[in-house]
Design brief:
Strand order of the largest sheet: 1-2
Shape: globular
InterPro entries: ACP, ACP-like_sf, PP-bd_ACP
CATH superfamily: ACP-like
Protein name: Carrier domain-containing protein
CATH topology: Non-ribosomal Peptide Synthetase Peptidyl Carrier Protein, Chain A
Structural class: mainly alpha
GO molecular function: acyl binding; acyl carrier activity
GO cellular component, one term: cytosol
CATH architecture: Orthogonal Bundle
Largest sheet: 2 strands, parallel
Order of helices and strands: HEHHHE
Keywords: Fatty acid biosynthesis, Fatty acid metabolism, Lipid biosynthesis, Lipid metabolism, Phosphopantetheine, Phosphoprotein
């Protein structure tokens, strides 16, 4: 069973709402249609900012965030919060399993699933 981010936050005595400026049920969608390559680019930019020095010149979208870029559970939480802000969405609890965030491709797939579950279209190239 994967580690739930909600459980990790609870272990620190933090509620998820304390880490986000949005409140439940009030999600603003800034992007109606998103192309997969745009999602991958934005995810890559965010990951590049979160990587501790030395930062690589480029991010391999298939490389392991944990093994290749040193992400731990806290880094994954920071990534999710940054993604929620960047894409103006909230990740459902079903997507808050750390093991789901293996690489950029998997993160982009999660974002695509969230868009689709909210009835938003996404063009895939």
């Amino acid at each position: 069973m994967g580690k739930s981010i909600a459980n990790i936050l609870k272990s620190f005595g933090i509620q998820r709402q304390q880490l986000s400026h949005r409140t439940a049920g009030k999600i603003k969608w800034g992007v109606i249609t998103a192309k997969r390559e745009e999602i991958v680019r934005k995810v890559t930019d965010i990951i590049h900012e979160l990587i501790k020095p030395p930062r690589p010149d480029s991010i391999d979208i298939n490389a392991s965030l944990q093994n290749d870029y040193g992400f731990d559970s806290v880094s994954i939480i920071e990534l999710i919060l940054a993604l929620e802000t960047e894409f103006s969405l909230e990740f459902p609890d079903s997507e808050l399993i750390i093991e789901k965030y293996e690489n950029v491709n998997q993160v982009a797939n999660i974002i695509a699933r969230i868009y689709q579950s909210k009835g938003r279209s996404m063009e895939v190239k």
